[in-house]
Amino acid sequence: MYVPPTSPLARIWATWGYLQSIGSRELTARGDNYYLAFEGIRYAKPPIGYNSFRDPISFNYQGNTERKVHCMDIDSNGKVFGEEDCLCINVYTPLPYVNKSLPVLIWIDGRRFHYESVRDSVCQPARLVEKWMVVVTVNYRLGPLGFLSSEGKSNPGNYGLKDQQMAIEWVFKNIHKFGGDPKKITLGGEGGGAAHVLFHLNGALSGRISKGIALSGSRFAPWAISKIGWVKRNTRTIMVSFWSLNHLDRFRTMTSSEIVAKANKLNNHWLVYRAIWLEKILYPFIPVVDGAVIKDDPWKKVGTQGNFSLLLGIKDKEESFIDSFLKKEKKIGSLVSSIFWDDFNYELIVGKANNLISDDRYKVAEFYKSNNDLKSIIKDGWFIFPAMAEAKFHRGPFEAFMYQDLRGTPSQNETMKNLSDLIARFVYGNPSELKSYSEDKRLFKITAALHNPRLFKEMDEPMSKRMQTWKSLNMLPPHDSTSIASTGQEGNQSTSNASREMSQPHLPCFSFPEHL
């Protein structure tokens, strides 16, 4: 039987042949629903040898590893896990998938601190594909393998972000073969991945993807992007640790597991340089302003953001990670609070506050210091205040919620189900149906509260009072500001590197020996 090559049947056969060529396995989702998992599909050449610490190179091989791959990283116990050859994506599509035009959710995980795991994700494909969507999860280079940088042309960094961009381009080109519609893509992420999502949607992908989801992360968070010189210094330190290697080509001859392990040991420098104890928590290798993927610090271009629908979520106990830190580091746990307050760095904790004079800035510091309230200032400065900034500066439709992180408890399944339902409604463009705190204390809307922190009173009165203090000091720049200089004045487009570094809110300033 002759089948015209342009007929629907021919397209179905061609798609089926393509999917068969890359392999799959059939899994049960829920009840009588089934989905296909295409795991380990390569989207770029292996980033090893000559290709390491370089931009990813596209790869058109129609095949996969038929297994899930993790990129190399350090777990919470300090052990290296994962693989160097990891630039793969995983595609999960419900059956039947041929000749469908389903919405697509691309998910980017990423941790912000040590003692978190990129393998413990809110995104659960089995729950989401039963909502009739195609789910794509992205592997990208992590830690020094993905974000080592000299902050110059020879080694600009942000390789992990460039991996993500290449994976997203692969989805645009190929997702129709899996039943997905490239015009119905939502980009979502958790933790560091949430900040990455917002970098992309307010950057190179602006106008190409109409929906974004950011859970437990913001591009305005102090941990999301490096201050000038921070990653460069850490890169120099780790390269020198390899027998005084100082040339990137020679550095590429080292094994990835050695590099990752060395990067983890880099965090132990707090023993010598007590003012940087937060390095034990913060990653030393994070995104940098490179003029390409991230053209400028997000605080400097608050009036020129992308226009897309944003769903932002925060856990009610985001600050709980510090408990794990203190428990793990018993030898230093008793010193952390005193070190923190002795070496208090306002900009590290509370982020950008360009409109404040010096005396007003430290009102916030004293507000917390008087109570020795380390956990509250981390919660407010690293999560709530950045979320308030997203709410103020986001140009498109915006909705925010808070939820209880009940993983590991008997209530986990119900909360995860409700979270998956919320994500699915957003992906489909349906009303969120978010309830108030009084109606549902496990998952509730906070959109209005991010604009008016008095409304946090019902759910957390102490936090409401704290954030009212922040708001009363007029800490956010004007909504129409297009450039914020270190002096706090608007419209100054030509800020020198020196003043730019001064205005960075992210990481503390300290001196290292010249040989580092």
Description:
With 516 residues, the protein is of the alpha/beta class. The protein has a single domain (8-503), classed as Alpha/Beta hydrolase fold, catalytic domain (Rossmann fold, 3-Layer(aba) Sandwich). Helices cover 34% and strands 13% of the residues. The strands form two sheets. It has a ten-stranded mixed beta sheet with strand order 1-2-5-7-6-8-9-10-11-12, with helices on both faces. Strand 1 and strand 2 (34-42) form a beta hairpin. Helix 13 (374-393) crosses helix 16.
What would you report as the Rg, rounded to the nearest angstrom? 23 Å
The number of distinct helices, counting runs of at least 4 residues, comes to 17
Quickly count the domains: 1
The low-pLDDT segments are: 7-13, 268-279, 331-336, 353-357, 481-516
Region (Disordered): 478-516
Domain Carboxylesterase type B: 29-469
Organism: Cimex lectularius
Keywords: Glycoprotein
Secondary-structure topology with pairs:
Layout: H1 8-22, E1 25-28, E2 34-42, E3 73-74, E4 80-81, E5 88-94, E6 102-108, H2 125-129, E7 134-138, H3 143-147, H4 159-174, E8 180-190, H5 192-201, E9 211-215, H6 230-240, H7 248-251, H8 256-266, E10 309-315, H9 321-328, H10 330-342, H11 346-350, H12 358-369, H13 374-393, E11 398-403, H14 412-428, E12 443-445, H15 447-451, H16 461-472, H17 497-503
Parallel strand pairs: 6-7, 6-8, 8-9, 9-10, 10-11
Antiparallel strand pairs: 1-2, 2-5, 3-4, 5-7, 11-12
Helix pairs in contact: 9-10, 13-16
